[in-house]
Design a protein that fits this description.
11 helices; single chain; 26% strand; Quinone Oxidoreductase, Chain A, domain 1; Rossmann fold; 7-stranded mixed β-sheet; alpha/beta; 6-stranded parallel β-sheet; 332 residues; 2 domains
């Protein structure tokens, strides 16, 4: 099979396509997936730049997100059979091969049936951002019907899914975007207020929108100074969830004075810590998300598609910033 290997930490050019042996037949509760598409995520570019979590296991195949067709199943697999279309988030961190390749071995409990109404490309773009947004809003942020939520970078991969999940829950959504085109895009997803943060102060806009009180929940998908800048936009005793590591220079004074509840979200934790039940929960999130997608309540926006051999170009584009939605690699 063909796969794109990360040969060493560095620039996108370290991603090289090679011919390698197909994975061994699946054992017990494993399934062998013929991968049709793989999502490209910021974690991929970060690992490529600095090295994987397991540097002693180089070279590595990156790519956490995959979608494809079940080729074979282990003897104890009960939920899937050969020919099923599936999607999943597993591998790609350095411990086991990722999905920048034509085949992948995955435990069945981490996998869900692909939504029937979308393409393999759209399905491959979905898992990591779906799980991240779901856990951030529903589990960390405890979003409730009628809440007001601020979502940063609403046109991005995680952001555009988070807007829709918030609306499904019955929340009102404000989101920051960088251009009028992106403002129009997020409004098609249901955003109630699109804030052009380069032109106006987003805190002032949020406070005006909430009658001076602040939002019930803020979701930071940007990191850096954005986390600290968001504190005064959250109501007293409100919540803020970030998917980035807070900067060492972050001043927590405003957050403390407002008695904010701070939550950290890293959807990779179950993979990194070997938490089987948590990874199974991720499969359950994908199963429920598939129902929402097929019910017309949730859309995945794929902005760019590249053939597998052009993985380096996909990384270059993602690192250039400002992408609306997701980037996908196609195996065919």
């Amino acid at each position: 099979m063909q796969a794109v290997f990360m040969t060493a930490p560095g620039s996108p050019e370290v991603l090289q396509i090679q011919e390698v042996s197909q994975p061994l037949p699946p054992e017990n509760t494993q399934i062998l997936v013929k991968v049709k598409a793989a999502g490209v995520n910021p974690i991929d570019t970060k690992l490529r730049q600095r090295g994987t979590f397991y540097p002693d296991r180089m070279t590595a195949i990156l790519g956490c997100d995959g979608a494809g067709i079940v080729e074979a199943v282990g003897a104890d697999v009960s939920q899937f059979r050969s020919g099923d279309n599936v999607y999943f988030c597993h591998g790609g961190l350095g411990a086991v091969p990722g999905n920048y390749g034509e085949y992948a071995i995955v435990e069945e409990r981490y996998v869900a049936h692909k939504p029937v109404s979308i393409s393999f490309a759209e399905a491959a773009a979905a898992p990591l951002v779906l799980i991240t947004a779901w856990e951030s809003l529903y589990e960390r942020g405890r979003l409730a019907p009628g809440d007001k939520v601020l979502i940063h970078a609403g046109a991005g991969g995680v952001g555009h899914v988070a807007i829709q999940l918030a609306k499904i829950k019955g929340a009102a959504v404000a989101t920051t975007v960088s251009s009028p085109e992106k403002a129009e895009f997020v409004q098609t997803l249901g955003a109630d207020l699109a804030i052009l943060y380069k032109q106006v102060d987003f805190v002032s806009e949020v406070l005006a929108w909430t009658g001076g009180e602040g939002v019930d929940l803020a979701f930071d998908t940007v990191g850096g100074e954005t986390l600290q800048q968001t504190f005064p936009a959250v109501r007293v005793y409100g919540d803020i969830v970030t998917i980035l590591e807070p900067a060492a220079s972050t001043s927590w004074k405003v957050a403390r004075n407002r008695n904010l509840r701070i939550s950290l979200e890293l959807m990779l934790t179950p993979m990194l810590q070997g938490l089987t039940e948590a990874q199974q929960h991720h499969g359950e999130i994908l199963t429920e998300s598939a129902r929402l997608i097929d019910g017309g309540k949730l859309k995945i926006h794929v902005a760019h598609q590249f053939p597998l051999k052009e993985a380096a170009k996909a990384h270059q584009l993602l690192e250039s910033g400002g992408i609306t939605g997701k980037i996908v690699l196609l195996m065919d």
